[in-house]
């Protein structure tokens, strides 16, 4: 019999807060975390703004030697996982570690490490490349280091599916619990790519906003004046548990994971399939797995990148899936505040969606000023909304045509 899966712990590092209360308060207050790039000199770049994690000290979570052997994206994952476990009240040394797993992905991995070590190779020669270069850089190391640092010995894996990574990780981890291979999974996404090479690449394909003089207004999903996404960094980690395990230990339940859908566009390297056809199939599969009718859904945390094609086609996809109900749905993109956290986006946005269900407050889409005829749904413009929301979806769509959707439900206490 398939097990029910619930969320019992949350850990976040983001441009709008490095703990859950700060993150949530800033989210529902409509506070932007976008500002000038400080991690490198971006003066020669067409885009000079980003959503950076501020005030993060890895030494609060690990010793100096460990920190030096981890790229920033891995440090983020370890820190957010520790916070999520604490939030859930789980001490792995008091549990069966074989029944606790790790599923944390990164869309790109240790790009800063790659840049630093490539510089050593060119300037100083191959003998000066660090022996830790490969294990610091590879994208699966977030899951590996979290497993090592926490002692979780259950299933350990990593999704790597560009901007869909975090949502794939959560959905796959939930399925591991459903089939009985673990009682608890530490799941989500992490990313730290505010680096010269990442900026050069995204600027070259003209994907990022150039609203450098108005950083807090630059990320404007679904708005007619949007001109590209704003890169962010951070980590979003959730503790998933079987309902039985959570109830046995008296855990506080944030929300329930009731469905997961995924699809491939089979269309283009970076552009979404016409009319969001792949995204629509992903949402339909999540609804089918959850046993939901379209009219059961109250809220969608959209992928909503603030790029022209994504926002238009995701809107069409929602209309194709939900029909007339699409106009009664509440939709928002929290990327308007955090920027686009790439592989970490799905994890952070799943946290936002779960908290919206728990607190009955829907976060807004800020910077929504100029309606776009192609984007004509209810995007919760500029101010949070109190509403008795019960079922929500969170969408993530990635380069390569990767689409992922999770369906969450407010936990009603029923066993």
From TrEMBL:
Domain (Ketosynthase family 3 (KS3)): residue spans on this chain: 2-410
Superkingdom field: Bacteria
Active site, UniProt feature: 163
Gene3D superfamilies reported for this sequence: 3.40.47.10
InterPro entries noted in UniProt: 3-oxoacyl-ACP_synth-2, Beta-ketoacyl_synthase, Ketoacyl_synth_AS, Ketoacyl_synth_C, Ketoacyl_synth_N, PKS_Beta-ketoAc_synthase_dom, Thiolase-like
Example GO BP: fatty acid biosynthetic process
Keywords of this entry: Acyltransferase, Fatty acid biosynthesis, Fatty acid metabolism, Lipid biosynthesis, Lipid metabolism, Transferase
Pathway info: Lipid metabolism; fatty acid biosynthesis
GO molecular function, one term: 3-oxoacyl-[acyl-carrier-protein] synthase activity
GO cellular component: a single term: cytosol
Pfam families, alphabetized: ketoacyl-synt, Ketoacyl-synt_C
Record EC number: 2.3.1.179
PROSITE patterns given in the database record: KS3_1 (PS00606), KS3_2 (PS52004)
Enzymatic reactions: (9Z)-hexadecenoyl-[ACP] + malonyl-[ACP] + H(+) = 3-oxo-(11Z)-octadecenoyl-[ACP] + holo-[ACP] + CO2; a fatty acyl-[ACP] + malonyl-[ACP] + H(+) = a 3-oxoacyl-[ACP] + holo-[ACP] + CO2
Physiological role: Involved in the type II fatty acid elongation cycle. Catalyzes the elongation of a wide range of acyl-ACP by the addition of two carbons from malonyl-ACP to an acyl acceptor. Can efficiently catalyze the conversion of palmitoleoyl-ACP (cis-hexadec-9-enoyl-ACP) to cis-vaccenoyl-ACP (cis-octadec-11-enoyl-ACP), an essential step in the thermal regulation of fatty acid composition.
NCBIfam families to which the protein is assigned, alphabetical: fabF, PRK06333.1, PRK07314.1
Family (UniProt): Belongs to the thiolase-like superfamily. Beta-ketoacyl-ACP synthases family.
Descriptive protein name: 3-oxoacyl-[acyl-carrier-protein] synthase 2
Source organism per UniProt: Melghirimyces algeriensis
